[in-house]
Amino acid sequence: MTCSPRLPLTLASAALISACAAQGPFPSLSPRAAEYELAGRPVPPCIGSGTAAGGAQAASGPAQTAPDAQLRAELTRLLDQARRGQAEFDEILPGARTRVARAGASGSDGWVTAQQDVSRLEAARAPTVDALAALEALVLARSNPDANEADRMSAIAAAEQVRRLAEGQQAEIDRLSASLSGGSARRNEPLPAPRNAQRPLGSRQALAASDRGHISPAAPPKAVPTGSACRG
User: Fold this and answer.
1) Which residues make Cβ contacts (< 8 Å) with residue 96, sequence separation at least 6?
2) What number of CA atoms fall less than 13 Å from residue 175's CA on the CB side?
3) DSSP readout, 36-97?
4) CA atoms lying within 13 Å on the CB side of residue 47
5) What is the Cβ-side half-sphere exposure of residue 189, based on CA atoms within 13 angstroms?
6) Domain coordinates in residue numbering, the chain
7) For the ranges 51-60, 63-72, 162-171, 220-229, which has the lowest average pLDDT?
8) Among 1.20.120, 1.10.3470, 1.10.132, 1.20.1050, what is the CATH number of 69-187?
9) What pLDDT, in 10s, does the model give residues 14-57?
């Protein structure tokens, strides 16, 4: 009996197909890739590229994106912007403190000048506040798992640095505003009564005055007849 030349090829194909059969939840008993290599047999594609590569990818976690060079440039620009706002704020702050301390009554020229200094401080810190908002948006955009970890940490560090500047500026403005508000409130309090003002009457004095007001004037004395009442 002669053997068909196609029989070995058919058997080899069947072996490869059986090795690539779908696996269930139980451990596979199929030969591993190393067993195929030791036997000098071709490794089925499903074993070489699927099982081994898939296991390595699962162990290392999701792939992260490459570092973003544009992000580093944007962080540098926003930090410089925040520092410029801080420099302008620091330039105005000493004079504002002095004028607030010397502010007069509410509505006076000194008080109005001090209020204008506080408004100038608010305008000076605008670049810092804007930079903080942009940095917080960058941190939020890189909160997904596949974001580059180094980029995310750099954005967080820059945002924290600018947040400290913005919080310090706001604290200074709050102190100055409270000082002006407190001074004006004290100046608007009613003045105390002068010392020589008439003091209210006590209970006994008030009662005596009330009694005096209800006393009727004395009745005039009756006329005494000049003649004798008895006649002889």
Assistant:
1) 114, 117, 118, 120, 121, 176
2) 11
3) HHHTT-PPPHIIIIIIHHHHHHHHH-SPPPPP-HHHHHHHHHHHHHHHHHHHHHHHHHHHHH
4) 21
5) 9
6) 29-61, 69-187
7) 51-60
8) 1.10.132
9) 555 555 555 555 555 566 666 655 566 676 766 654 444 444 44
- Extract the tokens encoding 116: 């204008």
pLDDT of res. 65: 76
pTM: 0.54
Burial class, 166, CB count within 10 angstroms (exposed 0-12 / middle 13-18 / buried 19+): buried
- Residue 107: the pLDDT is 83
